[in-house]
C-alpha cells in the first residue's frame, strides 16, 4: 500500500520508503533497523533508486564518489559508474591494505573507526559521499572528515534514508556538509 506523500517531499519518497524493510530489535533491543536489501532485490526499484541519484548529480562537477562501508559501497559504486567517475571506499578499521588515515566516531549503538587510503583523492577533488542512511550522523561526519583531511571537498553527502529523530542529519548539516536523502522515517 502506498502512503500519500507529504507536501514537502518528492513523489518518489513514498515509493522508496514503502520498499524498505523494518527489522525490530536488530542488531540489539530497541533498534528499528531499516533494511535496504528489498530495494536492491527488485530490478525496477533498484533502477529508480539509482536514477534518483544520477539525475541529481549528473550536471555537478564531481571528480569521485566515495561510499561508506558496507551498504554505501553498493549504491556509491553504481552511481559512480553511471556518472563516469571513480569510486573510493571508506572502510571499517583494518580492511584497507595500503597507507590509511582513520577517524573514530560514535553511532547509535556503540563506536567505530573508519579508514581511507591516504592517496584516495587528490587535493581539490570534488567528492560525492554516499551511505545507505543517516542515523546519528557519526559515520557520515567521520567519512567527510577523512576526505577533508586529504584535501578533498565534500560537495554533498547523500543517503537513501534519514532517521531525523536520531538527530544525525541536523549534525551533518551543522558541520557545514550539504545533505541529500531520498526519504525519511520520521513518524513512520
Largest sheet data:
7 strands, mixed
CATH architecture of the domain at 60-184: 3-Layer(aba) Sandwich
Structural class: alpha/beta
Q: Could you list the spans in which at least 5 consecutive residues all have pLDDT below 50?
A: 1-6
Q: Overall 3D geometry?
A: globular
| Proportion in β-strands | 25-35%
Mean pLDDT: 93
- The level 1 CATH classification of the domain at 60-184 is Alpha Beta
Count helical runs. Answer: 6
Distance between the termini: 14 Å
Summarize the helix and strand pattern as letters. Answer: HEEHHEHEEEEHEHE
Q: Major sheet: order of its strands?
A: 5-6-4-3-7-8-9
CATH topology (level 3) name of the domain at 60-184: Rossmann fold
What Rg, in angstroms, do the CA atoms define? 16 Å
Count of beta strands: 9
What percentage of residues falls in helices of 4 or more residues?
25-40%
